[in-house]
Structures are given as structure tokens and as C-alpha cells.
Design a protein that fits this description.
Blueprint lengths: L6 H29 L3 E3 L2 E7 L4 H12 L5 E8 L3 E7 L1 H7 L3 H11 L2 E5 L3 E6 L5 H9 L3
Parallel strand pairs: 2-3
Antiparallel strand pairs: 1-2, 3-4, 4-6, 5-6
Length: 144
């Protein structure tokens, strides 16, 4: 009895499993971050969190989380061979407090020997030097 017709069938099942695993990880992080302590600073809901997600999934998580939390200033970062970091700032904060996610990312990227940029409400970057969560929190808070 053959389990799979060919390598293509096997590859397709591996891709499906990977996607399912990524979705489960995404849901778990969303739950973990929602239950994390969000710090309220001058009417801004501030949170920095280390995650084990791709940049694409971190971006999706930012936009999903923004639908649940008003006045959000969110920085997510992951460590693998490089450091990846994203910053999401609610559009109301961009307009009313003149905050800019690309400036936050540029500041963090200097620290991690990297580069990045984006728009005022969402930006991403990466670098090769690891830094502590406390340092990323400190750099991010400097903008509030």
C-alpha cells in the first residue's frame, strides 16, 4: 500500500502542516500578548514583546491586535539568525501625538546594527546584533 502517490503529494502535506503550525503559533501569540501587561503611558497602550514569528506574521499580529486595543504602540521582535523588529502605532496616535513608527524602527535598528523603515503607523527592520528586551523597551519609550 502506498501512502503517497509521489513526492509532490508529500510536499503538499508538509506545506499544509507548516501552515497549520504557523496559524496555531499566531493564535497562541495573539492570546499571549492580549494577556500580557499593557503599560498605559499618557493615554497610550504601550507593549513590547519578543515573539517567535516571521516578519510577515508579526505584521499580521500587529494589525489584528490593533483591532482590539485603542491608542496602541506595539513593538514586536524575534531572534533567529538576525533580529527582526516591527512597530505598529495606531493611526490616532500618529495623527494626534505625531508619533512615527519608522523613527522608532530606525532607532532600534541603530542598536542592532541593521536597517529599516516604513510608514508612520507601521515599520519594520532587521539587524545582526542581539539586544535585551529591556533595551528595546527603553528605546521605544523614548518616543512617548
Amino acid at each position: 500500500m502506498k501512502l503517497f502517490q509521489n513526492d509532490k503529494d508529500l510536499d503538499g502535506r508538509v506545506v499544509v502542516l507548516r501552515k497549520a503550525d504557523q496559524k496555531n503559533s499566531f493564535v497562541q501569540y495573539h492570546s499571549d500578548i492580549r494577556s500580557s501587561k499593557i503599560e498605559k503611558i499618557r493615554n497610550v497602550n504601550f507593549l513590547v514583546s519578543k515573539v517567535d514569528l516571521s516578519t510577515s506574521n508579526m505584521k499580521s499580529l500587529c494589525f489584528a491586535f490593533n483591532q482590539k486595543v485603542e491608542n496602541l504602540f506595539l513593538v514586536l521582535f524575534s531572534e533567529s539568525s538576525n533580529i527582526s523588529v516591527v512597530c505598529y502605532i495606531s493611526k490616532s496616535l500618529v495623527e494626534n501625538k505625531k508619533l512615527d513608527a519608522s523613527n522608532v524602527i530606525k532607532s532600534i535598528c541603530k542598536e542592532i546594527d541593521g536597517a529599516g523603515g516604513g510608514q508612520p503607523f507601521f515599520a519594520a527592520g532587521s539587524g545582526k546584533n542581539k539586544v535585551s528586551t529591556d533595551r528595546i523597551i527603553e528605546l521605544s519609550k523614548n518616543f512617548l
